[in-house]
Each structure stands twice: as structure tokens, then as C-alpha cells.
Amino acid sequence: MAGRPAAWGTALPSVGLGAVCLSSAARTLQINRGAAAGFLLQALAALVGVVGFFWTPLGLTLAADSQAGTWVSTVIGLPLLAFGFHWLNGDHSTANILLGGALLLATGLEYFSEEGRAMVAQSVTIVASITILILSIFTMNFYGILGSLVLSVAGLLSGVKVETLLMLRKEAVLSCLLAAGNLAFQWALQTQHLDLD
């Protein structure tokens, strides 16, 4: 395992993403449980990918489960974050619409083709980041704006058909961007909670 630097280069950012999301879930649990659940879903998906990396030399694989888990964490986890932002601002109807739509999409996993899943995941990422961006602009929440922009860049890069970005594997770059975006969202939720108190 030590002789595979490309594999380690993908696994270590996933560990960082999982750690950031777990920390964010713990820190936002008292602010909004929906947002904490969104962070937790993203952490679990990242950590399942890391476990799959360590199990591969043993002849075990989690590729199918990891792919479905990543899709579900994107389709449900990101709208849960948007739900938290909207709920804290008192926009309960938009929060419920986002979450209800995400749950409907998540139940249709088997009905989508591979291209359909990619399109749905990218659409959910865009909708979640745009709604958080609009809300953050109106509330002047710098961390929310930053997190939305970083999440948007990650969503755009996920659709790019290249293997390496900036001399790094695409998965590693996406994990680093998602970790930075989730950290900014955690700070944004804390700032928004303090502003409302």
C-alpha cells in the first residue's frame, strides 16, 4: 500500500473531508439538526470511500456501495445544509420544499441512468449553492458566500472530463474543495446563528 502514492493522494483528502464534515456536524448540532445531518451524510460518504481504499488490498470492494452513498449524500446532504440556512432565517416553506424535492430524487436512484444521476447530482449542487448564496448575500454572511462559491466550483469541476487538475487527481481536488466549502458553511451557520440571537 505504501507504493501507491496516487491512491494515497486520493485517500488523504477524503480523510480530511470526512474529518471536516464530522467536526462541522458536531459543531452545528445545537444550531440546526438538519444542517448537522447534512454534514454527517457527507462525512459518512467520504469515510466509506476511505474504508474502500484500505479494503481493496484485502480483495474486498465497496465500489458500488460507495458510489450510491456518494450520490445519496450529495442529493440529500447538500439540501439539508440549504434547509438549515433557510430554517434559521425563518423561511420554512423554502426549506421544506428543498428537502422534500431532495428526498423524492433520492428515492429514484434505481430509475436514473448513470448520466441521469450525474445530472441530478450536479443540479442539486447548483440549487443548494445558489439558494445559500442568495440567502448569504441578503444577510451579508461572508462565509456563506465563500462556501457557495467554492461548492459551485466543485460542482463545475465534477462535470469536467479530465483525470488530473493542477497536477492532482480530480477526486483529490474535489475533496479539498468540498472540505473548504463545508468548513465555510459551518462558519456561516455559526455566524448566522449569532446574528439571529
Q: What is the tally of beta strands?
A: 2
**Strand percentage, roughly?**
under 5%
Task: Report the biggest beta sheet as strand number plus sense, adding barrel if it closes.
Answer: 2 strands, antiparallel
Number of separate helices? 7
Structural class: mainly alpha
Rg, Å, rounded:
16 Å
Placed side by side, the strands forming the largest sheet appear as 1-2
What's the pLDDT, averaged over the residues?
A: 84
Distance between the termini: 50 Å
Residue runs with pLDDT of under 50 for 5 or more positions:
none
- The percentage helix is over 70%
Please provide the ordered H/E string of secondary-structure elements: HHHHHHEEH
Any idea what the shape is? globular
Protein architecture, described:
- The chain is mostly helical and 197 residues long.
- 81% of the residues lie in helices and 2% in strands.
- The protein is built from 7 helices and 2 strands; from the N terminus they run ααααααββα.
- It has a two-stranded antiparallel sheet.
- The N and C termini lie far apart (50 Å).
- The mean pLDDT is 84.
Task: Summarize this structure briefly.
This protein is an all-alpha fold.
Key phrases:
mainly alpha; 7 helices; 197 residues; single chain
What is the secondary structure topology, with strand pairs?
Blueprint lengths: L4 H24 L4 H23 L7 H26 L3 H16 L6 H26 L2 H17 L5 E2 L2 E2 H27 L1
